[in-house]
Structure to design on (546 residues):
C-alpha cells in the first residue's frame, strides 16, 4: 500500500470526528439540501418578482408627481391655490406649468408631428405640478382634492391611482418579508430535524467524545458547520435555479422594460441560507445529552 | 504470561502534563481517595454506601462483586459520570463533589476508560478510533499516525491500523479499546469488565496488556467477575456487596 509523507495511505482519508472536521455527507443531508434549496428558490422567486414590479412601477413613478388643473376662467386664483397647496403636509413643492411648456410636452408626446399645438394648448386649463414627499400620508390626496375643489380646480385622478400602486407595492414587500420569515423558520426546522436524525445515528460518537473529555464546542461544531453548509449550499443551488426562470420570462420582461438582476440576490440568499442552516443546527444541538454528560 | 514488546517507554515521558496541569507522581500519594462515599440515584436506590478507600498511584486494583454491587457506579464516579450524594471523593487531587465542568473534562483527558462492550466506532477505522483521544486533546494530524502506530504495536495490532473494527475478532477489538485508552498516556486506566465477553485465553492476553501498562506506572482499576484471572494476574482486590465495601486484600 503506497503511503504519503505523513504515514497515511493514499487511498485513505482519515476523518476524525469533532472540531472543524465535517461529518460524511449522506442521504439525509442530500434530502435536506434539496428541500431547503426549493424553499430558497421560492424566496428568490418572490424577491425577483418584487424586483420586477418595482422596476415596472418605478419606471413611470420615479419622481412621484400630481397635477392639479384650474379652468382658464379662474386662472387669476392660481397663485393663491399654489400657495395653499404648498402648505399641505406631504407636498414637497408646487410648480406652475406654463402653457408654453405644456405645448412643448404635447408636441413631444405627439412625436414631433407637424400639428400646431399652440391653438390647442390655449384651451388647456392652467396646470400646477405637485411633487409629493410622502404619498403614503393617508389624508394627502383628500386634502389636495378639498383644496383644489375650493378653487374650482380638479386633480388628475389617474395619477392618484398611480400613487396607490406604490402603496400596493409596499404591501407586497411586507408580504414578501412575511413569506421569507415563514420559509426561513421552516428551513431551520428542516435542517434541525435532519441533524437530529444524524445526531441519533452518531450518539455513540458524541458520547465517546464526551467520555474522552471533549469540550462542548468540539462536540457540537461539526453539526453546526454541517447545518451552515447545507443552508449555504442549498442557497447557491437555489440561486442557480433562478436563471432558467429568468430566461423563461425574459421576452415578457423586456417588453415591459424590466431588467431582472439575480446577482443582487446572490449574497442575501447565501447569507440567509447559511444563517437558517446554522440556526437549525443550533436548535438541533441545543439539548444534546449523553449518559455521562458533565452535569 | 504474554509480555508485549516494551517499545513504548517513551509514551510515559509526558505523563501528568496536560494543558498546563501537573499531576504529582508520588508513588505514595493516593490517586483516588474516598471517605464514607455514598451515591443515591434520583429514583431512591442507594448504589454505594459508606465506602472508604484509598488507591495509590501505580496500583493494580480489582473491583469485584455480584452484578449491582456498585463496581460500575464507582468507576463512573472516578471519571465524573456521577457525582457523590455524600461523603468525600478525591480523584487525581480533585474533589469530585465540588468539581467544575471544565475540571471534569480535564480529568477525563487524564483518564483512560475501557468498557466491556469496548464502544469502538464501527464506522471509523482503527486509526480513527485510537487517535480520537489525541484529537480531542488537540494533537496535530501529522503527529497522530506515529503515536497510534506505537500504541498499536504495544497491543500487537500494528498491521490493523487502517482496518475497520468489524473485521477484527472480539479479543482484537478489546485490544484496540486498550490502545485507545492508553494512547493519550493517562496516569490511570479504568476498565469496566474488559474481559467479560472474552474466552479465558483471550481474556488472559488482555489482562497481560493491562499488567504491562501497570508495570510502566499506570494505575489500573478494573471491575471484573473473572475471579480465576486473579491467580495468574495478582493485584489488590476490593470486594463490594450491595453497594458496601466487604473486603479489601490490602485492608
Amino acid at each position: 500500500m503506497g503511503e504519503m509523507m505523513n504515514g497515511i495511505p493514499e487511498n485513505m482519508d482519515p476523518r476524525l470526528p469533532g472540531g472543524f472536521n465535517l461529518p460524511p455527507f449522506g442521504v439525509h443531508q442530500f434530502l435536506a439540501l434539496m428541500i431547503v434549496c426549493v424553499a430558497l428558490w421560492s424566496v428568490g422567486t418572490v424577491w425577483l418578482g418584487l424586483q420586477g414590479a418595482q422596476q415596472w412601477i418605478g419606471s413611470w413613478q420615479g419622481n412621484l408627481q400630481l397635477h392639479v388643473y384650474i379652468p382658464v376662467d379662474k386662472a387669476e386664483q392660481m397663485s393663491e391655490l399654489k400657495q395653499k397647496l404648498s402648505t399641505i403636509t406631504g407636498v414637497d413643492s408646487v410648480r406652475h406649468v406654463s402653457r408654453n411648456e405644456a405645448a412643448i410636452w404635447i408636441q413631444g408626446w405627439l412625436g414631433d408631428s407637424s400639428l400646431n399645438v399652440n391653438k390647442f394648448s390655449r384651451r388647456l386649463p392652467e396646470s400646477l405640478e405637485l411633487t409629493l414627499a410622502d404619498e403614503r400620508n393617508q389624508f394627502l390626496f383628500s386634502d389636495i382634492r378639498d383644496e383644489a375643489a375650493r378653487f374650482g380646480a380638479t386633480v388628475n385622478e389617474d395619477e392618484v391611482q398611480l400613487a396607490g400602486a406604490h402603496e400596493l407595492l409596499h404591501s407586497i414587500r411586507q408580504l414578501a418579508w412575511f413569506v421569507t420569515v415563514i420559509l426561513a423558520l421552516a428551513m431551520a426546522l428542516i435542517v434541525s430535524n435532519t441533524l437530529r436524525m444524524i445526531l441519533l445515528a452518531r450518539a455513540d460518537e458524541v458520547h465517546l467524545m464526551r467520555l474522552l473529555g471533549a469540550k462542548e464546542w468540539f462536540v457540537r461544531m461539526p453539526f453546526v458547520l454541517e447545518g451552515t453548509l447545507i443552508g449555504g449550499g442549498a442557497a447557491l443551488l437555489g440561486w442557480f435555479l433562478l436563471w432558467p426562470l429568468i430566461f423563461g420570462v425574459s421576452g415578457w420582461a423586456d417588453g415591459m422594460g424590466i431588467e431582472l438582476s439575480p446577482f443582487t440576490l446572490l449574497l442575501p440568499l447565501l447569507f440567509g441560507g447559511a444563517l437558517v442552516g446554522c440556526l437549525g443546527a443550533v436548535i438541533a444541538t441545543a439539548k444534546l445529552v449523553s449518559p455521562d454528560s458533565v452535569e | 504470561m504474554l509480555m508485549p514488546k516494551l517499545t513504548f517507554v517513551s509514551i510515559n515521558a509526558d505523563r501528568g502534563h496536560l494543558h498546563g496541569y501537573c499531576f504529582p507522581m508520588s508513588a505514595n500519594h493516593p490517586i483516588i481517595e474516598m471517605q464514607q462515599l455514598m451515591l443515591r440515584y434520583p429514583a431512591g436506590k442507594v448504589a454505594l454506601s459508606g465506602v472508604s478507600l484509598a488507591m495509590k498511584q501505580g496500583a493494580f486494583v480489582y473491583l469485584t462483586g455480584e452484578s449491582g454491587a456498585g463496581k460500575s457506579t464507582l468507576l463512573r464516579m472516578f471519571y465524573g459520570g456521577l457525582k457523590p450524594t455524600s461523603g468525600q471523593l478525591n480523584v487525581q487531587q480533585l474533589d469530585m463533589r465540588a468539581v467544575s465542568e471544565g475540571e471534569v473534562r480535564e480529568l477525563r483527558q487524564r483518564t483512560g476508560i475501557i468498557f466491556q462492550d469496548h464502544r469502538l466506532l464501527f464506522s471509523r477505522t482503527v486509526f480513527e478510533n485510537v487517535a480520537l483521544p489525541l484529537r480531542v486533546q488537540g494533537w496535530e494530524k501529522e503527529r497522530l499516525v506515529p503515536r497510534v502506530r506505537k500504541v498499536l504495536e504495544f497491543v500487537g495490532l500494528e498491521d490493523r491500523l487502517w482496518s475497520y473494527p468489524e473485521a477484527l475478532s472480539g479479543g482484537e477489538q478489546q485490544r484496540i479499546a486498550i490502545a485507545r485508552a492508553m494512547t493519550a498516556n493517562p496516569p490511570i486506566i479504568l476498565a469496566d469488565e474488559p474481559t467479560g465477553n472474552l474466552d479465558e485465553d483471550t481474556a488472559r492476553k488482555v489482562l497481560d496488556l493491562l499488567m504491562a501498562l501497570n508495570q510502566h506506572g499506570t494505575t489500573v482499576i478494573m471491575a471484573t467477575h473473572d475471579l480465576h484471572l486473579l491467580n495468574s494476574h495478582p493485584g489488590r482486590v476490593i470486594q463490594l456487596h450491595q453497594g458496601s465495601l466487604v473486603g479489601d486484600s490490602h485492608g
